[in-house]
Amino acid sequence: QVQLVESGGGLVQPGGSLRLSCAASGSPFSINYMGWYRQAPGKQRELVALIVSSDSSTNYADSVKGRFTISRDNAKNTVYLQMNSLKPEDTAIYYCTARTIMSRTYWGQGTQVTVSS
């Protein structure tokens, strides 16, 4: 079992920055990769960024490349999403996810990010 707790969402003006955090507990050593998805009202949940536990390789959605950075702190079992140059279209609920080596997927409760002037 893996538990995920997100934090760091909020309201920011266009062009601003936010950093999301996702702390994993339970059996974090079993995690193959972690990442972030988001879901805007009326839209499907979409991938934002992933980071692989073994080699820290990353993958980003085209819409956030160059603006968002995913990173991890192994000592704290925490993954971060640094979001810069935020746009109104980045407004969504952001969900942390973890996939274990046994191919089980876990989700956090979600954190709201609103980009508005």
> What's the Cα radius of gyration?
13 Å
Strand content: over 45%
Alpha plus pi helix count: 0
Number of strands: 11
Helix content: under 10%
Overall 3D shape? globular
Poorly predicted segments:
none
Mean pLDDT: 94
- Intertermini distance: 40 Å
Notes on the structure:
This protein is mostly beta strands. The strands form two sheets. Strands 2, 4, 5, 6, 9, 10 and 11 form a seven-stranded mixed sheet that branches. The chain has a four-stranded antiparallel sheet with strand order 1-3-8-7, with no helix packed on it. It is globular. The model has no long low-confidence stretch (mean pLDDT 94).
What topology emerges from the helices and strands here?
Elements: E1 2-7, E2 10-12, E3 18-26, E4 31-39, E5 46-52, E6 58-60, E7 68-73, E8 78-83, E9 92-100, E10 105-107, E11 111-115
Parallel strand pairs: 2-11
Antiparallel strand pairs: 1-3, 3-8, 4-5, 4-9, 5-6, 7-8, 9-10, 9-11
Identify the notable features of this structure and list them briefly.
117 residues; mainly beta; seven-stranded mixed beta sheet; four-stranded antiparallel beta sheet; 11 strands
